[in-house]
């Protein structure tokens, strides 16, 4: 697959990374939803998760040589 070759990843490596990011985004979405209903809950959680996702994506670009 072109996408896997471009990123120098096997299918399983790609699956693991993509699922990790997907899981973070799912938790971030749930925390944002809860926060919208109860603003005193999960005050910084979504922001922290967004930062983690951004860091993972930036690290992936550096590893792949795509900056």
Q: How does this structure look, described?
A:
The protein is mostly helical and 67 residues long. The protein has one domain (2-64). The chain has three helices and no strands. It has helices at 2-6, 11-37, 45-64. Helix 2 runs antiparallel to helix 3. The longest helix is centred in the middle third of the chain and has 27 residues, at 11-37.
Helix content estimate: over 70%
Number of strands: 0
* Poorly predicted ranges: none
Which of globular, elongated, flat, extended, rod-shaped describes the shape? Answer: elongated
Number of domains: 1
Number of helices: 3
Oligomer state equals single chain
Strand percentage, roughly? under 5%
**Head-to-tail CA distance between termini:** 21 Å
Mean pLDDT across residues: 88
What is the element string, with H for helices and E for strands?
HHH
- From the helix content, strand content and strand pairing, which structural class follows? mainly alpha
Radius of gyration equals 15 Å
Q: Mind summarizing the main beta sheet?
A: none
């Amino acid at each position: 697959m072109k996408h896997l070759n471009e990123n120098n990843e096997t299918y399983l490596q790609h699956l693991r990374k993509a699922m990790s990011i997907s899981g973070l985004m799912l938790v971030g979405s749930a925390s944002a939803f809860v926060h919208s209903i109860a603003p005193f809950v999960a005050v910084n959680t979504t922001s922290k998760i967004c930062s983690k996702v951004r860091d993972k994506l930036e690290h992936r670009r550096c590893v792949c040589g795509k900056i």
